Amino acid sequence: VQLQACGGGLVQAGGSLRLSCAASGRTSRSYIMGWFRQAPGKEREFVSAVTWGGGSTAYGDSVKGRFTISRDIAKDTVYLQMNSLQPEDTAVYYCTAYFYKYYWGQGTQVTVSS
């Protein structure tokens, strides 16, 4: 599975961004797709995930109520709508797919200015 993420950028606090991640290769409805993030000097943190087949979602505590994950099965793409962004959301965001092991895309930088 290959994952191509895009949509990062610079935004002011309170603003919004939408990340997208297109999957290609051997995709499957058994996959779980999601996002992690890593800020400088910190460990990689779970952000959100969605089951490809059923659409069940999960969120990290720090983003609940602000971020929304969704998927477009026809396009093999998962989205992360990020609202009410805060400086502490600044990080490299990584798209991931899980099916017995993790597959990672390249990161996309999100920077939130105060």
How are strands sequenced across the largest beta sheet? 2-10-9-4-5-6
Q: Average pLDDT, to the nearest integer?
A: 94
- What value does the Rg take, in angstroms? 13 Å
- H/I helix tally: 0
Topology as a string of helices (H) and strands (E) = EEEEEEEEEE
Oligomer: single chain
- Total strand count, please? 10
Helix/strand-derived category reads mainly beta
Main sheet, how many strands, which sense, barrel? 6 strands, mixed
Shape: globular
Task: Present the secondary structure layout.
Blueprint: E1 2-6, E2 9-12, E3 17-24, E4 32-38, E5 45-51, E6 57-59, E7 67-72, E8 77-82, E9 91-98, E10 102-113
Parallel strand pairs: 2-10
Antiparallel strand pairs: 1-3, 3-8, 4-5, 4-9, 5-6, 7-8, 9-10
List keywords for this structure.
114 residues, mainly beta, four-stranded antiparallel β-sheet, 0% helix, six-stranded mixed β-sheet
Describe the fold and architecture.
With 114 residues, this protein is mostly beta strands. The protein is built from no helices and 10 strands. The mean pLDDT is 94.
Concise structural overview:
With 114 residues, the chain is mostly beta strands.
